[in-house]
Write a structure and sequence with these properties.
- This protein is 37% helix and 16% strand.
- The chain is of the alpha/beta class.
- Strands 2-1-3-4-5 form a 5-stranded mixed sheet, sandwiched between helices.
- Strand 3 and strand 4 (129-137) form a beta hairpin.
- 25% of the residues are buried.
Length: 185
């Protein structure tokens, strides 16, 4: 019986003496996982109270996200439309959902975003599109607002680009806080 105990003990001691490096997995991380260490920025589709503006809102939101990705450079990583739609489905929303400011902020927090752009979409008295967007940290009371004057309803990419370009200055300032106002153009 003592021989069996000695053999079991020798087996256990010998097994634990193997190098720890051999026990680590050797697979490489997937290239599809985000490798950027930049904080996330959520750019939601502009909120509108008119059902007829839903398709316009989604098109403007995509244009705004695309341009903000370039404007933010490496300072922020803009959550892509695909990532946003996957998360929206997990939370029970349809793809390309248009969320009002409070649910959008909660959604941004659940995606671990540090900054969000919340915008609203409406029409002026002449029927031209008016877009107002606010860039702020999720824990900040102050933020920066950019608004477009009434524009044509045909070019959503241009409208989204104008808003994104309005945020160029605060994103390029070395300060860790976003300025509250943009100087007049």
């Amino acid at each position: 019986m003592t021989v069996a105990r000695v053999l079991v003990l020798a087996f256990l001691v010998g097994g634990s003496a193997t190098p720890l490096a051999a026990q680590n997995p050797t697979r490489k991380p997937s290239t599809q996982q985000g490798t950027s260490t930049a904080p996330r920025m959520l750019v939601g589709n502009p909120h509108s109270f008119s059902i007829e503006d839903s398709s316009h809102s989604v098109a403007i939101g995509e244009a705004l996200r695309s341009r903000m990705d370039r404007v933010a450079g490496g300072q922020f990583r803009v959550v892509s439309r695909t990532e946003m739609n996957e998360a929206l489905k997990q939370f029970g929303y349809p793809a390309d959902a248009i969320l009002s400011p409070i649910p959008l902020r909660a959604f941004a927090q659940s995606l671990s975003a540090k900054v969000a752009i919340v915008s609203s979409f409406s029409h002026d008295a002449a029927g031209k599109h008016v877009l107002t967007a606010r860039l702020a940290g999720l824990n900040d009371d102050a933020g920066m607002v950019v608004a477009t004057p009434g524009g044509s309803g045909d070019n959503h990419a241009e409208l989204g680009a104008k808003i994104a370009d309005g945020f160029t200055l605060p994103l390029q300032t070395p300060s860790s806080h976003l300025p509250c106002r943009l100087p007049p153009p």
